[in-house]
């Protein structure tokens, strides 16, 4: 079996048009030297130096998209005034001007051999967070005792953690 790179030397045989050409053979002293069409090593062509030709010409003229306008960025060290943004841990006032606070309350559910616990983040006034605290604690007291691990550890953890979180809310509100 012959590969496309092997030359067949049968009398009267010619390679069909469009068939792949065999690789170029270099003289023994020229191995490792690049063909003459490339620039010397270390020199790179400038744009437009080579002409495109052969089967790989670019089809038709293309128009470049217009460049986007450059965006203006602040210089290094220039920042907007700090009073425009709330500091970490602070939230902007609510619609009626009351202080907005944030708290995470746990809901624990015991289920015979396993249990489920979810953390719910609430944002609002002190009254909104009191309602969320009451809802989470009611859930824990009704549904948190139904597995052995919940009775011993996990439901207690959820109840006391919610108490601590609500204490932080009241302290932040000044009550």
Please describe the topology of this protein.
Blueprint: E1 101-111, E2 114-124, H1 126-143, H2 148-173
Antiparallel strand pairs: 1-2
Report the β-strand fraction as a percent range.
5-15%
Q: Outline, from the CA principal axes? A: elongated
Mean pLDDT across every amino acid position = 74
Q: What's the helical proportion of residues? A: 25-40%
Keywords: Membrane, Transmembrane, Transmembrane helix
Description:
A hairpin with a 2-residue loop joins β1 and β2. This protein has a domain of about 70 residues. It is of the alpha+beta class. Helix content is about 25%, strand content about 15%.
Observed structural traits:
transmembrane helix; 25% helix; membrane; elongated; 175 residues; 2 strands; 2 helices; two-stranded antiparallel ribbon; transmembrane; alpha+beta
């Amino acid at each position: 079996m012959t590969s496309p790179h092997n030359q067949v030397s049968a009398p009267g045989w010619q390679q069909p048009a469009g068939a792949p050409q065999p690789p170029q053979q270099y003289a023994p002293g020229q191995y490792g030297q690049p063909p003459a069409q490339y620039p010397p090593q270390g020199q790179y062509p400038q744009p437009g130096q080579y002409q495109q030709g052969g089967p790989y010409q670019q089809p038709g003229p293309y128009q470049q998209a217009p460049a986007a306008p450059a965006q203006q960025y602040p210089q290094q060290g220039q920042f907007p005034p700090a009073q425009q943004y709330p500091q970490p841990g602070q939230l902007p006032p609510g619609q009626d001007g009351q202080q907005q606070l944030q708290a995470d309350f746990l809901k624990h559910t015991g289920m015979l051999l396993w249990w489920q616990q979810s953390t719910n983040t609430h944002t609002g006034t002190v009254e909104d967070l009191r309602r969320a605290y009451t809802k989470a604690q009611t859930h824990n007291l009704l549904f948190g005792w139904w597995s052995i691990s919940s009775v011993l550890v996990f439901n207690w953890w959820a109840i006391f953690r919610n108490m601590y979180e609500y204490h932080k809310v009241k302290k932040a509100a000044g009550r």
